[in-house]
Amino acid sequence: MPAIRTETADGVRSIILARPEAYNTITPELRDELAAAIDAADDDPDVRVMLLRAEGRAFCAGYALDLEAYAAEDPDALATLTTMQRADGRLWDSVADYRQMKRYVDTYMKLWYAHKPTIAAVSGWAVGGGTDMVLCCDLIVASERATFGYPPSRVWGTPTTAMWVYRLGLEKAKRYMLTGDAIPAVEAERIGLILQTFSHDRFEEDAMALARRMARVPVNQLIMNKLLANQTAENMGLGSSRMMGTLFDGIARHTQEGLAFAARMAEVGHRQAVRERDEPFGDYGSKPREP
Fold this sequence. Notes:
Blueprint: E1 4-9, E2 12-17, H1 28-43, E3 49-54, E4 58-60, H2 67-70, H3 77-82, H4 94-113, E5 118-122, E6 125-127, H5 129-134, E7 139-143, E8 147-149, H6 164-168, H7 170-177, E9 183-184, H8 185-191, E10 196-198, H9 203-215, H10 219-235, H11 238-252, H12 256-268, H13 270-278
Parallel strand pairs: 2-3, 3-5, 4-6, 5-7, 6-8, 7-10
Antiparallel strand pairs: 1-2, 8-9
């Protein structure tokens, strides 16, 4: 089944994550289909705004961390999750890891670099790699029941797209990057991580209404104003921050603590290992919460 489906109405292209049974976790297929969908919308003269949304209880619960799925593209990846040595005896290669992760990051950044505006409409969990994706959109709105956060900052990862500081400012970004704490949508709006929360019952209608309002503006005006705003973050060093975030993500998975976490995941399964990591903090859980 496709990982992405699209709909178009009133100048708005909805790009919909469509694997609700898997909490829309990130796979190579989702990455490639998302990249193609963004490019197609950016090239379509009938589209003025992209609205990224998702089916099911979770917007995106991060990467599909089934160990076999993680190794699908790289036969050596499975071996190097729990040791510093690849299956062929060579040591883990930080540059090869960076190049592999960059393929995902480049897709998320298409939301940032697309000429046309992008809006993320988040319901349920958007955590881990899911935040790497949504924070690249121009605007983020959310159901009042949504939750954001980057729990891999506790062990086994760093934010690859490095958008937290640019959205929150230095101190607030550190507050959440240094704890990995969950951020309810209402709090995310208060601290400036997202634009606005909507009532859960009217969430989809209100998100679409915002996209349609934006789509009334001539596309050339939309493109120029997006470029003007985004250039501020570019001038602040977004490109170099992103490169460091992507490189550090691989290193974080191969520290002593990162390897121990991966070994525990191989022993008891991903959900149990994550539960053990997050239980002392009293947040998240083994699956997205009920709406």
